[in-house]
Design goal:
By secondary structure, the chain is an alpha/beta fold. It has a domain at 95-322. It has helices at residues 20-23, 45-66, 69-72, 88-91, 108-117, 142-148, 170-183, 209-221, 244-247, 260-265, 296-303, 338-355, 369-378, 386-407; strands spanning 14-18, 36-38, 79-82, 100-103, 133-138, 157-163, 190-195, 230-232, 240-241, 271-275, 323-324, 359-362, 365-368, 424-425. Helix 2 runs antiparallel to helix 12 (338-355). The chain is globular and about 60 Å long.
Length: 429
């Protein structure tokens, strides 16, 4: 199906409140995707209508960016390349294997250095114990990653490139990982998604018998194998630390009990176990591709009711996932990020051209998204750069989109897919 590009106008202003923790530069590190908060007490029927129009516009723009007339006749499809096909290891894989899939960008040199010097990353091929590890990068970064990782030689390690046309962003990258998992020929029953900087700790180690037992119990409680389950192996952590600072502070894994309410309010992220089926034919999988600037984890949690107090789809352990600092090597710096400079920035720009005109209202402010952003620049809150302007605009809109899903304002049977899931595995390189 080829989607028409249709942009509608909104009428009612969206009532917002400035997030004070985002305005403060220090606090922004952990609130970087949340510049505003929805003033929910002022949300009426007219506001709901405008919110839904914003969502429809966002999806239509993303569908247009994802369309692939050059290769796939107008379909909005992911395609993939891999650095090796039909290796001895890959030919032995079967549905009982649990592949690890890691999204990565702009960190080829740092990851290569880390993989070759120690085993502290949670997804290190040595820690995977012969399970396949797929490092997923955008096609614009594939060659550089392949060169940087040329000395990383593990039979269970695979470098994969993804391509979503002109569509990019955090949500699209996550959706690409799910689409790739869905297309694996050995049809695994379960996958692990890990952030590129997730560190190995005894508390959240996926091969730890206690962790494996807790995970299985949580999955069964969530409905496995009758339904897809999404279980975090710990609580997300926005702060990166160096390995020595936490290495001697590990505690044994603990089952989540009285802290379930707190944990369920945090996005399930960073190390996640997902059971099949990974995609049904009417969605992009569990991750919303249209969440470009961040917040895809939060919206995924909202879509699946993970942020509500349900006895399913929550973190199975009362443990914090550690994000490892991957320091820049001054002698071997990363090259300019073609993915960010080309595709990602272009996606944000296309969104901004429409979304800058949305009406919003705050205390002592009534205007457009564009006018609010210019006030941020004048006050020195953000820089007067394309990156800051486009990102801030997208994040404002994405807080509204999260609110729509959290409040269940969606029309009945609403189709929010960007990609049509006609996935193509391309030739090996």
């Amino acid at each position: 199906m080829i989607y028409p590009v249709e942009i509608k106008s909104t009428s009612a202003a969206i009532p917002l409140k400035l997030n004070p923790k985002w305005v403060d530069e220090e606090d922004r590190k952990i609130r970087k995707y949340a510049p505003v908060i929805i003033h929910y007490k002022l949300v009426n029927a007219h506001v709901k209508t405008s919110m839904n129009i914003m969502l429809e516009n966002r999806i239509n723009i993303c569908r247009d960016l994802a369309r692939r007339p050059d290769k796939f006749g107008g379909h909005t499809s992911f395609s993939f390349n891999r650095n090796a096909c039909r290796t001895i290891h890959s030919m032995k894989l079967k549905f009982t294997n649990i592949p690890i899939i890691v999204n990565s960008t702009g960190a080829a040199t740092r990851i290569a250095k880390d993989l070759l010097s120690n085993y502290s990353l949670a997804w290190h091929p040595e820690n995977a114990r012969d399970e396949p590890v797929y490092l997923l990068v955008h096609k614009f970064e594939f060659e550089y990653y392949r060169q940087a990782l040329s000395k990383v030689e593990y039979k269970n390690f695979y470098l994969i490139s993804w391509d979503g046309g002109k569509m990019s962003g955090y949500g699209a990258a996550r959706a690409a990982a799910i689409a790739f998992a869905d297309a694996l020929p050995y049809r695994p029953k379960q996958i692990l998604l890990m952030d590129q900087d997730a560190a190995l700790t005894e508390q959240t180690r996926h091969t730890n018998p206690v962790v494996k037992k807790s995970l299985l119990q949580a999955q069964i409680k969530a409905g496995y194998p009758q339904r897809t389950t999404i279980i975090g192996l710990g609580r997300g952590n926005p702060t990166r630390v160096s390995v020595p600072s936490f290495k001697n502070q590990l505690i044994p894994p603990q089952r989540t009990t009285h802290k379930a309410k707190y944990i369920s309010r945090a996005p399930t992220q960073q190390i996640i176990a997902i059971t099949a089926p990974f995609i049904d034919r009417h969605t992009d999988g569990i991750y919303p591709s249209f969440m470009v600037a961040g917040g895809e984890d939060m919206l995924m949690n909202c879509k699946l009711d993970i942020v509500t107090i349900k006895e399913s789809n929550i973190s199975c352990l009362d443990a914090t996932i550690i994000k490892k600092e991957l320091p820049v090597d001054l002698e071997h710096p990363e090259p300019p990020n073609r993915y960010w400079d080309n595709t990602q920035l272009n996606t944000l720009k296309k969104l901004y051209e429409v979304e800058k005109n949305y009406k919003i209202s705050l205390t002592n402010f009534n205007g457009t998204v564009e006018q609010l952003i210019h006030s941020f620049i004048q006050k020195g809150i953000i820089k007067n750069s394309e990156t800051d302007i486009y990102n801030t605009s997208a994040n404002i809109v994405e807080r509204i989109l999260i609110f729509i899903y959290r409040s269940k304002f969606l029309p009945h049977n609403f189709d929010d897919s960007v990609f049509d899931n006609k996935t193509f595995i391309m030739s090996c390189r």
